[in-house]
Design brief:
Number of strands: 6
CATH class: Alpha Beta
Distance between the termini: 41 Å
Function: Protein transport. Regulator of membrane traffic from the Golgi apparatus towards the endoplasmic reticulum (ER).
Radius of gyration: 16 Å
Structural class: alpha/beta
Oligomer: single chain
Number of domains: 1
Order of helices and strands: HEHEEHEHHEHEH
Family: Belongs to the small GTPase superfamily. Rab family.
InterPro entries: P-loop_NTPase, Rab, Small_GTP-bd, Small_GTPase
CATH architecture: 3-Layer(aba) Sandwich
Protein name: Rab6
Membrane topology: Lipid-anchor
Strand content: 15-25%
Strand order of the largest sheet: 2-3-1-4-5-6
Helix content: 25-40%
Number of helices: 7
Length: 206
């Protein structure tokens, strides 16, 4: 059984407005690096990585979608067979947060309730430019019945815990313990928000 579990593959589609950091989150997870130059994703990019969770391995297939309007018609077909939809917004861009409701609705239209949806507030390193509070975003996540995590692809904050949390929530993972609490910053506690992240330099469009 362990060998069969190790072969499990799950499709994660990354959604969200342009320049919120979808590619940067994936790049930080895949290669543990951050590219300071911004290049918009054209169409769809695909990457794959095995993540190890307790006693088993899971193959995550990461589909990075373009945020530009001209590519929107491509996205429903990628949502259709996904296990997880990761909807990313920029905590320093309120409009990108407001648009997450549309992205969630689009996922629900294609997949109903047969999908894990994760709301991700990226760029928490932009402390002085924040336009969306943790409390407001957490409230929206609860309203829509989705998971919520804040990250900083630039600082590497909460990236690995995000994917561990996703992997633990996948079908067939019920017997595996969830992400260790000491590794995941609790978004419900102000005291644990990363307002003191070591990398708080100016933002980028990534």
């Amino acid at each position: 059984m362990a060998a069969l579990s190790a072969l499990a593959k799950h499709k994660l589609v990354f959604l969200g407005d342009q320049s919120v950091g979808k590619t940067s989150v994936i790049t930080r997870f895949m290669y543990d690096k951050f590219d300071t130059t911004y290049q918009a994703t054209i169409g769809i990019d695909f990457l794959s990585k095995t993540i190890y969770l307790e006693d088993r391995a899971v193959r995550l297939q990461l589909w990075d979608t373009a945020g530009q309007e001209r590519f929107r018609s491509l996205i429903p077909s990628y949502i259709r067979d996904s296990s997880v939809a990761v909807i990313v917004y920029d905590v320093a861009n309120r409009e990108s947060f407001l648009n997450t409701s549309k992205w969630i609705a689009e996922v629900r239209a294609e997949r109903g309730s047969d999908v894990i949806i994760v709301l991700v507030g990226n760029k928490t390193d932009l402390v002085d430019k924040r336009e969306v509070s943790i409390e407001e975003a957490d409230g929206r996540a609860r309203e829509h019945g989705v998971m919520f995590v804040e990250t900083s692809a630039k600082a590497g904050f909460n990236i690995k815990p995000l994917f561990s949390k996703i992997a633990a929530a996948l079908p067939g993972m019920e017997t595996v313990s969830t992400t260790k609490q000491e590794d995941m910053v609790d978004v419900n506690l102000k005291a644990t928000s990363n307002t003191n992240q070591s990398d708080q330099r100016g933002g980028c469009a990534c």
